[in-house]
Amino acid sequence: AQSLEAEIQDEPSRKALQRTIRRGLVLVAETRRDWQAAEGEARAWIEADPQSALALERLGHALVAQRQIPE
After folding, report:
1. 67 dihedral zone (left: phi>0; alpha: psi -120 to 50; beta)
2. What is the Cα–Cα distance from 2 to 17, expressed in whole angstroms?
3. CB neighbour class for 60 (10 Å; exposed up to 12, middle 13-18, buried from 19)
4. Structure confidence by residue, pLDDT tens digits, 35-70
5. How far, in whole angstroms, is CA 6 from its chain's centroid?
6. What is the Cα–Cα distance from 58 to 49, expressed in whole angstroms?
7. Which of 33, 10, 29, 31 shows the shortest CA–CA distance to 21?
8. Are 33 and 42 in contact (CB under 8 A)?
Protein backbone atom coordinates (compact mmCIF):
# COMPACT_ATOMS: atom_id res chain seq x y z
CA ALA A 1 0.00 0.00 0.00
CA GLN A 2 2.84 2.40 0.77
CA SER A 3 4.44 1.87 -2.64
CA LEU A 4 1.08 2.62 -4.29
CA GLU A 5 0.77 5.73 -2.15
CA ALA A 6 4.20 6.90 -3.32
CA GLU A 7 3.19 6.45 -6.97
CA ILE A 8 0.10 8.65 -6.70
CA GLN A 9 1.02 12.16 -7.72
CA ASP A 10 -2.09 14.23 -7.07
CA GLU A 11 -2.71 15.18 -3.44
CA PRO A 12 -6.50 14.55 -3.22
CA SER A 13 -6.07 10.99 -4.47
CA ARG A 14 -3.18 10.37 -2.10
CA LYS A 15 -5.18 11.62 0.87
CA ALA A 16 -8.17 9.49 -0.13
CA LEU A 17 -5.89 6.44 -0.30
CA GLN A 18 -4.42 7.25 3.13
CA ARG A 19 -7.91 7.41 4.63
CA THR A 20 -8.89 4.11 3.04
CA ILE A 21 -5.71 2.40 4.24
CA ARG A 22 -6.14 3.69 7.80
CA ARG A 23 -9.79 2.62 7.91
CA GLY A 24 -8.80 -0.87 6.79
CA LEU A 25 -5.99 -1.11 9.35
CA VAL A 26 -8.37 -0.08 12.15
CA LEU A 27 -10.85 -2.75 11.10
CA VAL A 28 -8.14 -5.43 10.96
CA ALA A 29 -6.88 -4.49 14.43
CA GLU A 30 -10.43 -4.52 15.83
CA THR A 31 -11.09 -7.93 14.30
CA ARG A 32 -7.93 -9.21 15.99
CA ARG A 33 -9.00 -7.48 19.22
CA ASP A 34 -5.68 -5.65 19.22
CA TRP A 35 -7.07 -2.54 20.85
CA GLN A 36 -3.77 -0.69 21.17
CA ALA A 37 -3.13 -1.09 17.45
CA ALA A 38 -6.72 -0.06 16.70
CA GLU A 39 -6.26 3.05 18.81
CA GLY A 40 -3.01 3.96 17.06
CA GLU A 41 -4.47 3.45 13.60
CA ALA A 42 -7.61 5.41 14.51
CA ARG A 43 -5.45 8.29 15.72
CA ALA A 44 -3.46 8.18 12.47
CA TRP A 45 -6.74 8.14 10.53
CA ILE A 46 -7.95 11.19 12.46
CA GLU A 47 -4.67 12.93 11.66
CA ALA A 48 -5.20 12.17 7.96
CA ASP A 49 -8.90 13.12 8.09
CA PRO A 50 -9.76 15.29 11.13
CA GLN A 51 -13.40 15.68 10.02
CA SER A 52 -14.13 11.94 9.94
CA ALA A 53 -16.86 11.06 12.41
CA LEU A 54 -16.27 7.37 11.70
CA ALA A 55 -12.59 7.70 12.68
CA LEU A 56 -13.60 9.33 15.96
CA GLU A 57 -16.13 6.57 16.57
CA ARG A 58 -13.52 3.87 15.98
CA LEU A 59 -11.11 5.65 18.35
CA GLY A 60 -13.83 5.72 20.99
CA HIS A 61 -14.52 2.04 20.46
CA ALA A 62 -10.83 1.19 20.92
CA LEU A 63 -10.60 3.32 24.07
CA VAL A 64 -13.72 1.74 25.58
CA ALA A 65 -12.37 -1.72 24.80
CA GLN A 66 -9.18 -0.80 26.69
CA ARG A 67 -11.22 0.85 29.46
CA GLN A 68 -9.41 4.14 28.76
CA ILE A 69 -12.40 6.44 28.53
CA PRO A 70 -11.28 10.06 28.96
CA GLU A 71 -13.25 12.00 31.52
Report:
1. left
2. 10
3. middle
4. 999 999 999 999 989 999 999 999 999 999 998 776
5. 19
6. 13
7. 29
8. no
